[in-house]
Each structure stands twice: as structure tokens, then as C-alpha cells.
Amino acid sequence: MIGETSEVTSADTGNVDTLKETIKSKQDFHRYWMSAIELAGKTERDWREDAKTAISQFRSDKQYGRVAKFNILYANIQTTCPAIYNSVPSADVRARFGEAMPVEPPPPAMGHNGGPAMQPDPAAVAATSAAQADAERKNKDRSNVSQTIERAISVQSDLYDYDDALKAAVKDRELLGRAVTRLRLNMVNGPDETDQETGNAIPGAVVSKHITWEPVIWDDFRLGPAKRWADTPWIAFHWAFTRDELEGLNTELAWKVNLDATVEGQPDKDASTPDTFKRANVWEIWDRTKRKIYWIAESYDQGPLKIEDDPLKLLGFFPIPRPRLAIETTDTQVPICPFMVWQAQQEEMNSLTRRIGALIKVIRWRGIYDGAFENAVKAMKGLDEGEMAPAPDAARALVQGDIEKAFWLMPIEQAVTVLKQLYESREMCKQVIYELTGVADILRGSTKANETLGAQELKAQWGSLRLQSAQQDIQLHARDLMRMTADLMAEHFGPEELEAMTGIALTP
What we know:
single chain, 6-stranded antiparallel sheet, 15 helices, 14 strands
């Protein structure tokens, strides 16, 4: 998709050692980032091919033909996803270290030589009262802030459907092996204003703000080279922009960018396609080392379209929490498609299903008969159950001796035997898949009549161990998203906006 952009190597740059020496012009800047994105794509190339295979199997795409299939991948995904995530999470915001401790009043001092107690120092009493009032104020403020953020997250969740984003994350994790969810701070501007001196349009003031969660399409995401998420230097999102969207990004350079892709984001191979149906491949790069965002078009090699300073001010800079992987190892962040673990068993099941379908077509009640009994056969075809008709040629039937000798049926006993064996083999293959995926019978609602309650409880206990791990992973994903949402609210929402949203007045 990036085209023929070459990578930056030591030979290209004269054995330079630093990035500063590598990038000396806007063209070098564009070339460097295109090479970095291309290299990141090559690192995940095998996983992307596996992900395409899994999606095609899950969807039963037509490009693979309408052959007989037992789509157990679809059945497993539709079973495990609701078991992993089945309700919208609710925010629980509270102080990390509890309330401020109240200040105890000073005890009265003893009199001289054991005499009567002396009155406390008025200054000490006043200081104690002030400290107590300050502690109560801090506790009240702490409670108000916690309740405000908690209510604000709840309001945003209801209005902008965080539930769909988490459902998409669960499905991407289980089907493709990686889930990425992005937070976006959306600002709605009022009507444009006109500059009195130049006559140019000026965007109106921000009238409202809201935070959304968005699933990131698996093939539109790249991340920089690192074995751990904490060490990841940059991430990038791919977009297919129209000309209008390019103008919103940079009005001066928008018409210099070549629309090099179609609506689907594929390379444009037909020059006669109208521009209305063309797009420009653009990468949104978040560079954590510089805390800047670069917008780069693949077809415009004269530099970036736009450079932004950190707009969100998040603690971890990136607008996404750590991507959730279904299969993790400590030496790489490249995901593994879970379907590849048991793809061979799926292909075996498809082969058995095709053979079963072919044998079912063979096993039919078919045969031939003596032509002399044609009229008798026609008479029998029109009879209802229990009804009889006179034989058109009874004399010939008596000479034949046994009318069954005049009929010859296709032998199907061997085919029936083979068919039974195929069904048994397919059931055994299914059990192997269930062992590999951890989808127990009890999770699928399947049980046997002779099973005891203890056996079912044992299946429920041990069959859900791997499911519990996936549940915890999604719970952590939702927690991280809510923490980042709270971070954005505290940074970008004013007291008046939060009060209008939650009904709680915050002190300065």
C-alpha cells in the first residue's frame, strides 16, 4: 500500500549514526517515516495474512467457494465473546489513599506540682480548629472530584456508546489476536466568524466537548519497533482521505496531494475513475519521543501535511491503552492469530464435511425393475398409505413367483457404514478443537443425559480457566480506557462543563 518507497539504510545516508543526521530536509522526513511504516508492516506481514485467512473463514467468503464447511470458528467466536464480555462496565472513581485524617484537639496541660489542669492555649485551639476545617474541606473536595469524574464518565458512556467499542475489542482479540481501542477528544465549534481585515473565515469558538471510544481497524495500525509496549517509540493510524478532508488538514497543500487510492483504500489502477471516488492514503503518526503528531500522505513526498504538538496531554501520550493480545510472548509485540493454532483441525473438519455431503448424495433409494411391471409400478406410485390396487398383470406375477425378484436396488450398505465412521471422526476432530480452544461443553450449553451434577460443575470450574484469563484482560482494557477518559476530562473539561454534565459544583 505504501508503494515503492525505499527504506533508509546506512548506504543511503553515508553511514550516519543519528536521526538528526539522517533527516536534513522535508523530503528526508517523508522518506524516513514511509520507510519506518513499511518496515513495521513487514514485521507483521505473516500475522496480517493469517488474520485475512481467519476473517475469510469466519465470514465464509464467496471467494473461497461455497463448498461444504463446518464453520466451527464462527461457532466458537459467537460463544466465547458473550462469555468474556456481556455487560457495560461502570466507572468507580475514588481517592487512592482515603480521606485526610482529622486533627485531634490538644489535651489540657497539667497544673504546677499536680495542681488543677490549665486551660489550653487559645492559639493552639484556633490552629487545631483551622486544621480540622481544612481537613473537612479537603475530604469534601476529594469526594466531589471523585463523584464528578465518575458521573461524567457514565454520561459519556451512555451518550457515545462505549459498549460497541468494547464488543469490537473482544471480537478482534478472539478472532484476530489483537484489540486496539482509541480515545478521541471531539470538539464542536460554533458558526464560523469572518476576519474583518482579511475577510477569511475563522473557526467559531468551541461550544461543546465529548470523548468517544473507537475500535481501530486491525489493518490500519502500525507500531514502532519494541519488545514491550512501554518502550514503543511511535504508533501510526492509516486513513483514506477525500479532498475535502485533506483541506481540513492543510488548505495550502491539499490540492498538491495525489489521490492514489479508491474508496476501499486499494491502489487506483484506473485513471478514468472520478476524483469523487478516489482517496489519498494518509498516515497519522504519534511520535512519543518528540510528543508530536505528524500527518504524512504517501503520494506527497515534499514533507508532512501537518505537525501538531501533543493535543491530549495524556500521561502516556498515545491515545490508546496497551493493545490486548490473545497470545502473548515476552520477546515481541507481534500478535498471533488464535485460529492458526487449530487451522489444521478446521481443514480436517471441512474435508470430512465435504465427504459426508458427497456420500449423502450417493445414499438414495434407487433401483431398476422388470419392464413388464411398468403398469404395476405406475399404479403403486399413486397409492396412499394403506391403499391397494388390482394388479394389471396378475398372471405374470404368478409366473414370476416372487415380485421382489423383479426389482433390483442400488446397494448402499457400505456407504452407510462409511458415513457413520465419518460422523464419528468429525466428532473426534471437534473434541480436539475444543481442547485446543478451551471451549468446554458447559460453555456451549451442551451436556449428556448420563452426566452427574458434579461432572457438570467440574467442567464449569476447569473449562473456564482460560476464559477467566480473557475476561481479566478485557476488564483491564476497560479500566485503562476509563483512566484515560478521566485524564482527558481533568485536563480539557472546565468546572462549568463538568457541573453542567454532572450537577456537582467544583470549588476552584
